[in-house]
């Protein structure tokens, strides 16, 4: 059962309340990746929303306190080159306290929230590896009368982990409130045996990467031809994202679009390079095999006509929401929460998963007639539907 907030109860009884304080626990920049981006933007938009909304929560002022990781993953478990995007890429001075494998830090993390006088702590949850640390922090918070909320990005990780479902179930079952970022995530939570009520609040648009620029200028910056169709595959290259499926589809297309692959490779290059050679795609595939820093993201999304996500599995996608910010339509496989964000023939196209023929047909259809222009307008309209303001309002409500 969700525990009522003690300060809201007191406020309803007419008792004076100075403020309400919300804690956030998760990775903040300079940690890399979509979860860190989400944590930072949730903090910033919650703080900004509250500061401009005197009537939120019955007129109770709200303050936000963030705690980040001191160590997210042991180096031996991290497949990439670095867990950090750069020391300067921070907008919030979150306190780096939580060490995923040091139990002493778990106690210190809980004590920090307690000392700050928070009423609720929102845990960014996406991987069973963090469940033991989160569970201990949550137990200490609840003993102090603080509500524990899980904001769940993934309930089932893309790569299997030992005892993953059991760890996730144990942590989430002890939370007072659970928010899933898609209907698919909610179904995953329920399927592993969590009986706590689960709210669904769709992943909002990432709008922190600046505005779109002229496509020709963006292509020039990236060393691409200024003319001709360009497709974008963006993000860390991992098997579940299906780049190999896209490389098998490209030779079957008639549109002859250039594919721009932008992101650090977590997979073996040899198989993907073999597919490029096998399909005679060396002149159609441009690989920027690096982690794309925030200040360059706008160039990649401005240069492309469409985002391609041929995923094998998915829950939801911050990359799609970044594309919406830039008014970029998407072609996605019909897995997980992707069809919840991409409405077929409205803001993108949805195709059968792991089917290169279906993907090739969708790419050709996108560039046929006026479909590209129509879907681009649909993507621009999706920006308002998935705004941070709507997300924060729903969270506070």
Structure description:
The chain is α/β, with parallel strands linked by helices and 397 residues long. The protein folds into two domains: 6-201, Rossmann fold; 215-385, 3-Layer(aba) Sandwich (Rossmann fold), CATH 3.40.50.2000. It has helices spanning 6-12, 34-51, 103-116, 131-143, 164-173, 183-191, 215-221, 243-249, 269-278, 294-303, 318-325, 338-341, 356-366, 371-385, 388-396; strands spanning 20-25, 62-71, 95-99, 120-125, 147-152, 177-180, 198-200, 230-234, 258-262, 285-288, 306-309, 330-333, 348-351. Strands 3-2-1-4-5-6-7 form a seven-stranded parallel beta sheet, sandwiched between helices. Strands 10-9-8-11-12-13 form a six-stranded parallel beta sheet, sandwiched between helices. Strand 12 (330-333), helix 12 and strand 13 form a beta-alpha-beta unit. The longest helix has 18 residues, at 34-51.
Low-confidence stretches: 11-16
Assign an overall shape.
globular
Radius of gyration: 22 Å
Structural class: alpha/beta
Distance between the termini: 17 Å
The H-level CATH homologous superfamily of the largest domain, spelled out, is Glycogen Phosphorylase B
The CATH class of the largest domain is Alpha Beta
């Amino acid at each position: 059962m969700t525990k009522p907030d003690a300060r809201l109860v007191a406020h309803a009884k007419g008792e004076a309340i100075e403020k309400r304080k919300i804690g956030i626990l998760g990775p903040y920049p300079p940690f890399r990746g979509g979860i860190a981006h989400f944590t930072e933007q949730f903090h910033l938009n919650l703080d900004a929303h509250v500061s401009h909304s005197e009537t939120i929560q019955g007129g109770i002022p709200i303050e936000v306190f963030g705690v980040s990781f001191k160590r997210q993953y042991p180096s031996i478990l991290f497949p990439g080159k670095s867990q950090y995007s750069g020391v300067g890429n921070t907008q919030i001075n979150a306190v780096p306290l939580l060490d995923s494998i040091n139990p002493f830090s778990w106690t210190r993390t809980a004590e920090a929230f307690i000392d700050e006088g928070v009423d609720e702590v929102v845990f960014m949850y996406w991987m069973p590896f963090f469940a033991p640390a989160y569970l201990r922090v949550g137990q200490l918070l609840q003993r102090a009368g603080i509500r524990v909320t899980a904001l769940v990005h993934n309930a089932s990780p893309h790569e299997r982990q030992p005892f993953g479902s059991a760890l996730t179930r144990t942590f989430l079952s002890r939370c007072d409130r659970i928010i899933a970022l898609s209907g698919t995530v909610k179904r995953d939570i329920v399927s592993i045996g969590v009986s706590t009520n689960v709210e669904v609040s769709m992943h909002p648009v990432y709008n922190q990467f600046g505005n779109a620029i002229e496509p020709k200028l963006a292509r020039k910056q990236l060393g691409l031809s200024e003319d001709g169709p360009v497709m974008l595959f963006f993000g860390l290259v991992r098997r579940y994202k299906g780049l190999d499926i896209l490389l098998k589809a490209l030779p079957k297309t008639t549109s002859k679009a250039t594919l721009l692959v932008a992101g650090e490779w977590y997979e073996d290059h040899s198989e993907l390079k073999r597919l490029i050679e096998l399909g005679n795609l060396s002149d159609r595939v441009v690989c920027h095999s690096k982690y794309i820093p925030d200040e360059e993201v706008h160039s990649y999304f401005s240069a492309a006509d469409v985002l391609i996500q041929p995923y094998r599995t998915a829950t939801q996608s911050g990359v799609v929401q970044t594309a919406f910010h830039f008014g970029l339509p998407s072609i996605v496989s019909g897995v997980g929460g992707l069809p919840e964000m991409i409405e077929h023939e409205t803001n993108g196209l949805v195709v059968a998963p792991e089917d290169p023929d279906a993907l090739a047909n969708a790419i050709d259809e996108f560039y046929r007639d006026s479909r590209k222009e129509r879907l681009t307008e649909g993507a621009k309209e999706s920006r308002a539907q998935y705004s941070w303001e709507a997300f924060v309002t729903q969270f506070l409500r």
